[in-house]
Amino acid sequence: MKRVLVGPIFLFFLLFSTLSVAAQESTRVTAIRAGHMIDVEAGRLIDNQIILIEHGLITAIGSNISIPSGAEVIDLSDSYVLPGLIDAHTHLAMTEMPGADINDHGTYYYTTLLEPTAFRAIQGVAQARTLLESGFTWVRDVGNNALYADVALRRAVEGGWIPGPNIIASGIIIAPFGGQFQMQPEKPDLGNPEYIYADTEDEIRLAVRKNIHYGATVIKLVTDNQPYIYSVEDIAAAVDEAGDVGIKVAAHASSDEGIRRATLAGVVSIEHGTRPTDKTLRLMKEMGTVLVGTDFPATRNGAERHAALVDRIRRAYEIGTPMAFGSDVEYYREGWTRGELTLEFLDSYTDAELPADYILKMFTLFAADLLGVNSGVLKQGAAADIVAVDHNPLDDINAIRGVHFVMKDGRVYKQDGRFEWETPRVMNNPRRKPQRR
Q1: What phi, psi does 77 have (nearest 5°)?
Q2: Angle between helices 149-159 and 117-133 (to 10 degrees)
Q3: pTM score, two decimals?
């Protein structure tokens, strides 16, 4: 057999040509003909717009924009075009399987004990894809991911290894001893690796540093799942430590006192916020603290608990407390994808009779502001995170359950209702905190 020797010059030209093709793909101009475009900031519809996209960003929008020669043209003339959706409270690597409510006694013990990080990361790959397919271009993953499966997923998405939304990842949840579990003295470490137990300011600061070292881009605290809860000073220590490197702190808080303390300590958001008084909701408004209510639909929550959540949604809206959408979906339902389950939460906001334009802002603009990312709007300079539906979501917000087109960072992932994924020619393996957008 004749051997062919490949010299360094040939290898150089092979590499150069591969990179050149990739560079040409990334710099190609894309033009979208948007028949109906949603201006989420103003809550209005604008017809017959041209959106130009280059380098993953929107470079121009208008009705009289010239489409450059050679641009790829995407015709969405019959569609309603809006920013990509955002879920500010998800758990990609946490899935309660059927029967978990009975077998797991309402805790995460079985998942923690029986499912290793690698398996949960694989689950996360599937969940991430379905969320992107449903129109979610950003998510904030807030813990319960074993040993940093969320960080691994973030790196895999950024590196082009898997399809999924861009991810803000929290790493391991920081909590007082016990976390969200009721411990027993013979097995005090049963909560690992779901939680880092930290009960002093020094321990809290160390836990924050560990999470950041291992790749977290947000910090998650549990404030009040135990009889003892963090003080304002405890929570402020985490806010201060994370803030040194520009990272925000989200606080799981259900009780009015836990919500109040976390708000006074300067967290960016309250997760769940189940039982706030009007006084505390007004404090959140004053401090600019965002309520991420994780407002489960009645199909999951039951009538009584759902009614209480609907009441809290209405009160927060009437008071003017900032709100952003977050689901907290970590369960499974036969025949449903994670993305479809996430969009079921629309029921809670329509039950509370929130205006459609406000709900849409919760899913886009308000959530993007909370995450600190350049998304959630369609305007020049914003990330080209764009989805399309068949009907006007300003008339009926449930229209966003039918996303048929998805673009993230200028790349098309779903078109004509079909999900498209091809492993890119050039991938990378990011290991550090991504630059803030």
Answers
A1: -65, -30
A2: 50
A3: 0.91
